[in-house]
Amino acid sequence: MNEQQQSLILESYSRFLPPQGVKLSYGTAGFRADASLLQSTVFRVGILAALRSLKTHSVIGLMITASHNKVSDNGVKIADPNGGMLSQHWEPFADALANAPSPQELIQLINEFVKKEGIQFDGVRSAEILLGRDTRPSGEALLEAAKQGVASVVGAVAVDMGILTTPQLHWMVRARNKGMKASEQDYFEELSSSFRCLVDLIPSERSKSDGTNGKLVVDGANGVGGLKLKVLEKLLNGLVVEVRNSSEDGGILNEGVGADYVQKEKVVPHGFGSGDAGIRCASLDGDADRLVYFTVHPESSGAIDLVDGDKILSLFALFIREQLSILNEKEGTKNNHQASLGIVQTAYANGASTNYLKQLGLEVNLTPTGVKYLHEKAAEFDIGIYFEANGHGTVLFSESFIGWLEATTKELSTRSKGSDEEKAALRLLAASRLINQAVGDALSGVLLVEVILQHMGWSIHRWNELYHDLPSRQLKVKVADRTAVITTNAETVVVSPPGLQEAINNETVKYSQGRCFVRPSGTEDVVRVYAEASSQEAADSLANSVAKLVDQFLG
Ligand code: 16G
Ligand code: MG
């Protein structure tokens, strides 16, 4: 790099000195730590984002959030040109950059990397980075660090998009790079217009059924999602939403609220109680990229019926399969286009959901935990639906299939206007505009769930009856070194330490419908245990025995 560039980095470096003795790694969700430790990391990720933009000749996103973690934490992650996660191939560089202990080493690292990647540096090209942050109080200062990081690369410009949900920023990056309108207002308009389009396409005989009438109550986790949902709701009609825990009433982010809490603890979030029994409720996480539904048990101490990511996936799969079969029946032979539909889950998907989807004749794929893996797999299909049980997921439509849908709807609008097949094609097109194509998005997810329930004429109870979850239990085990656990087959089999998998198998066979796996967490210093069996007692007992095994092998 030339002298101007070098002195620019060195000068800003001194304002963001790395904390002593802290080693961070770019995990499944970017860098995360106590916010007080992150200034230097975020500054460096600003540099990384600028380099990524120079390398890809595209707009890049930088999001400051720690999602469902406690309010004193924060984090930072990159959105790649297509709106997806940072290419895994750059993660080792992100780690090295964040941990470079001196300015000289930082400069050397950048020099080597820029050379290796053939990045045109020194102001030859321009770079543009969109910055977003959630509602955390530490976000503003960290945003400043990100701006300085971007500005320390000659030719790079940071654009502050303000307080956003994580999926909004990913959506904007994708839209910008596709040359589409990409403001926050455009996001709201795209979602609301495609939602209204789907409402208009509800079969008239179904829209009269009253199973889904009544409001939806949403727990906003005291984060950014509730605020944005209130804006979005004003643009819709045909949907009444009450937002609680919207952060405006002083509640603490993610404390006893939010999708992560509701899904893991299986209890009502703060602000909900037996008075809400029977009502359709949903919960977002702190940065609104996760969504779960639930209903409150009457007269009980906070127990809920959870309708998790697996069931959202099943609902989406049913709807899409229905539209595809209408099209295949009428259009399939004419157009000779059989769309491939693929389902992607992780080992955390409840076994009952996987069975249900397979019984529908759908192809179910398993990947390791982490959005990047699921997303990548789902992108292999014309329509790929992926969800983690924790509520992160979306539906991906391939460019070629969207092209086919556009051509087909156009043709049908002259040949058989108002026909079932035209409506089915229009529904799929609207769904592809509604559901975030960049990343799982609780806001677009809520709208798609709501309109499908109306389309089916279903209540949340009817939806929840699609299948019954097998009882399950999750535990975490503190071990000396969690990286000693190495897994394969989408984390379902332990290959190291030797003997552990065999011991797990020996336990699991003792239980009817038993299934169990262990994996090192990507976000916490623990090994996670998941167990499933035909009764809750059995699932608990299997999880406990396997947790003991983990402790014996690694404790
Ligand atoms: C991160 C992942 C999420 C995954 C979770 C697992 C992204 C954007 N987020 O939150 O997909 O389910 O980690 O956490 O990839 P764990 O590794 O601690 O179990
Ligand atoms: Mg999140």
TrEMBL record:
> What Pfam families is this protein classified in?
AMG1_II (PF21405), AMG1_III (PF21404), PGM_PMM_I (PF02878), PGM_PMM_IV (PF00408)
Any binding details for the cofactor? Binds 1 Mg(2+) ion per subunit.
Q: What is its EC number?
A: 5.4.2.3
Cofactor or coenzyme needed: Mg(2+)
Any idea which UniProt keywords this protein has?
Answer: Isomerase, Magnesium, Metal-binding, Phosphoprotein
Q: What class of enzyme is it?
A: isomerase
Q: Which InterPro entries match?
A: A-D-PHexomutase_a/b/a-I, A-D-PHexomutase_a/b/a-I/II/III, A-D-PHexomutase_C, A-D-PHexomutase_C_sf, AMG1_II, AMG1_III, PAGM
State what this protein does: Interconverts GlcNAc-6-P and GlcNAc-1-P.
| Family assignment from sequence similarity | Belongs to the phosphohexose mutase family.
This chain belongs to the protein called Phosphoacetylglucosamine mutase
Question: Lineage in the entry?
Answer: Eukaryota, Viridiplantae, Streptophyta, Embryophyta, Tracheophyta
